[in-house]
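G.,

No rush on this.
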Amino acid sequence: METPKISCRWNPSLFAGWRRWSLLIFISLLLFFIASRVPLFSVENNPALQAWESFYLDQGENPEKRWPEADIQGLTFDQQAILKVRTTYDRADQSDVAPNTLNSLRRIAGITTHMAEGYVVVAQLLLLFLLSRMIPSWKSLQKPVLGALLGAVTAGVAVQGLKILIGRGRPNELIYRAWPDWQPFTLEHSHHSLPSGHSTAAGVMVMMLCVIFPRWSALWCLMGIWICATRVLTAEHWPSDTLPGLVLGGFCAAFWIGKLQPREDLNQSDTSSQRPLE
């Protein structure tokens, strides 16, 4: 079996790949800004907000409620999504209770989200790499799997550093303490929301699977998106935490898979990798 190769369009070592990743990073940052900063939903007649107000009176942990501010212009997509997910905490006999579909999705998310635990992904990749060295028919998978393993380690270190540096409060800071704040350079787990580690690990796996089984790329991408959704449905992350993590994981995996790929195997149609004829 021929060794799977990353396309020049997704190889960051080549100009075509770097250009595509740059565009993807820009789009993810733009969506992050819109979802986290732009008020899109009204605070008036907002059932999710009203249900949270009642919930906070009973279970709020901060007696000095500081959110929403009196002059707030509206709710961001992040805030609205988390308040909607929070309605799944309410009893069935309460008003504005979450629809059954949302409750079912949250239960499924609570189980499937563990598929992308960082240590689980690293353990899976390490096992695959060892098997690829032991089983002759799997030998062709050695470099893509090793690239994904190195990508997972690189992305994991980057994610932990960014979490500490950025210090974004997790959704529970809004749900229970009414103050979704930012505390840069903090070691508190409650302020390690951005980027999502699970989404980053999912990005690594998606990239590796797309390289090994390119015909199923759409399915792998949908699986990555679902892992991102599980982080929101379990109220562990804001929606805008997930896409940057997914892109970061995919980029790190693509970088290492491309680095381990022999130069002669690179697609010579990328003009940046060609040398003038002598």
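When you get to it, here's the other one too:
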Amino acid sequence: MSCPICNKDSVERYKPFCSARCADVDLARWMGGRYAIPAEDPPDAEEAEQILRALEEGNDTLH
């Protein structure tokens, strides 16, 4: 397996990275927002209110 940052061979101690430096670079990228996990957009306010009203009325047919 190669290091996802520099493509050198990974080292067991830092797997999947080759060094502490590459692991730190990866962490900095996550913390800086360069990576993102795809997610669904949250429901808009009107849709959220509709869902809450349906739940309060006991209507559980909304999915």
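The domain at 1-58 is CATH 3.30.50 (Erythroid Transcription Factor GATA-1; Chain A). DSSP finds two helices and no strands in the chain.

Enjoy the weekend,
O.
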